[in-house]
Design brief:
The longest helix has 34 residues, at 26-59. With 451 residues, the protein is α+β, with helices and mostly antiparallel strands. The chain is elongated and about 110 Å long. The relative contact order is 0.02. Strand 27 (426-427) and strand 28 form a beta hairpin. It is built from 15 helices and 28 strands. Strands 1-2 form a two-stranded antiparallel ribbon. A two-stranded antiparallel sheet has the order 3-4. It comes from Branchiostoma floridae. One of its GO terms (biological process) is regulation of transcription by RNA polymerase II. One of its GO terms (molecular function) is zinc ion binding. This is Zinc finger protein 135-like. InterPro entries: Znf_C2H2_sf, Znf_C2H2_type.
């Protein structure tokens, strides 16, 4: 074990030789060696004596003349005062190095003295700047993942990436059971979930965020309206490069996030998290009489079933919905977009679930769900549930404006449009007849064509 002590250092010069040095007799050499050994032994004794003296001094508490002028710490040696821990007055961080405290204080002051001369990046630490230049400007990525071919400019980045394969999450939250693969992710979790602090404020509205990048995303999406990143496949535009990369997976089919309990995989980590909660943990923390695995699902349920609010409206036909995603799917009816393609025929669909129904009905031929009353078979359990209502007479969808009820929701929707909605978007070009349903217009047109 190395021992620190204060005094004049002893320099030892080592020489390599083979046999007795030239010009020195064996007797003289032996005498010289003996004297050297005695001198070395004396020096060892002196060193041991000094060490014992230092240890003796540390054992006597009353002999500590060097005192800290900020706390009650005292020590026998003046040099130890210089190494006495420095503490941050903002958060209680402590260190034995004054330089480390200076670097730490930049977290609170926001000072970033190290500037990149090739872009506008700046950082509080020189090491971060070196890593930035290596990763962003040199283009050299010598570290490669053996699992997927991912390459990195620095070893630490590759080490973090490897955890996506191993599932290792060494950073544990001390306030809940959350764990993370990276310390930065854990810090974000604590800031977002436990501290309640949202230090980044939007200067154009009352929005605030726990991370600077979230504020930047908000400003780009809500205030500037800029969407510089465009998909070359379908023209989809987005405010952020990361969102474009996620979108591209709808075209490439890439699903890098794998479930470790079944063969499910997802294009986004959040989707995998939803899957894990819904399918494997069994937790449904969000409750109405209805219960849900995700808060967003409960919010959608509440908006659709209880508040009656439908803030999203189609400008083409007046269709309203409680969810923005449903409006996006609805709009495909008008623009004719059908992004989901069948790989066995030329069929395409506006929604993935519709394509799944098509695949089961037309190509696999599998109809595992059968009615015990009449032998009706279907590829989908939902279809069997609807069919069973023809036997039971169940009509769970009730109109809130009259006593009409229906066995299927789309039948109720048709009723609402026909009987209670003033807006009738389908108009006959031959006469002034108008209707809320396209099928009614088709029937009406036969009065003109004499079909």
């Amino acid at each position: 074990m190395a021992t620190s002590w204060h005094g004049s250092p002893i320099k030892v010069k080592q020489s390599s030789f083979d046999g007795s040095p030239a010009g020195v007799s064996q007797m003289d050499f032996d005498r010289t060696s003996s004297n050297t050994e005695n001198q070395t032994t004396d020096k060892k004794v002196n060193l041991i004596t000094k060490k014992v003296d230092l240890n003796s001094a540390s054992e006597h508490a009353e002999d500590k003349p060097h005192k800290c002028d900020r706390c009650d710490y005292s020590t026998p040696w003046g040099s130890s005062i210089d190494c006495h821990p420095y503490m941050c007055g903002q958060c209680g961080y402590r260190t034995v190095n004054k330089g480390h405290l200076s670097k730490h204080m930049r977290i609170h002051t926001g000072e970033k003295p190290y500037k990149c001369d090739q872009c506008d990046y700046s950082t509080a630490e020189k090491g971060n700047l070196i890593r930035h230049i290596t990763a962003k400007h040199n283009g050299d990525k010598p570290y490669m993942c053996g699992e997927c071919g991912y390459r990195a400019a620095i070893w630490s980045t590759l080490s973090q990436h490897i955890r996506t394969h191993t599932g290792e999450k060494p950073y544990k939250c001390d306030q809940c059971d959350y764990s993370a693969a990276q310390k930065g992710t854990l810090d974000k979790h604590i800031a977002a979930t436990h501290s309640g602090e949202k230090p980044y404020k939007c200067d154009q509205c009352d929005y605030s965020a726990v991370q600077k990048v979230l504020l930047a995303n908000h400003i780009a999406a809500k205030h500037t309206g800029e969407k510089p990143y465009m998909c070359g496949e379908c023209g989809h535009r987005t405010t952020h490069k990361s969102m474009l990369l996620i979108h591209m997976r709808t075209h490439t089919g890439e699903k890098p996030y794998k479930c470790d309990q079944c063969d499910y995989s997802a294009a986004q980590k959040s989707t995998l998290d939803y899957h894990m909660t819904a399918k494997h943990t069994g937790k449904k923390p969000y409750k109405c009489d209805y219960s849900a695995a995700q808060k967003a699902t409960l919010d959608n349920h509440t908006a659709a079933k209880h508040t009656g609010e439908k803030p999203y409206m189609c400008g083409e036909c007046g269709f309203r919905t409680a969810q923005k995603s449903q409006l996006s799917r609805h709009m495909r009816i008008h623009i004719g977009e059908k992004p989901y393609k069948c790989d066995q025929c030329n069929y395409s669909a506006a929604q993935k679930s519709t394509l799944d129904h098509h695949m089961a009905a037309k190509h696999t031929g599998d109809k595992p769900y059968m009615c015990g009353e009449c032998g009706y078979g279907t590829a989908h359990r939902a279809n069997l549930s609807k069919h069973m209502r023809t036997h039971t007479g169940e009509k769970p969808y009730a109109c809130d404006q009259c006593d009409y009820s229906a066995a299927q929701k789309n039948t109720l929707d048709y009723h609402m449009k026909a009987k209670h909605t003033v807006y009738k978007s389908y108009m006959c070009g031959e006469c002034e007849f108008r209707t809320a349903r396209k099928s009614n217009l088709s029937k009406h047109m036969r009065t003109h064509t004499s079909e």
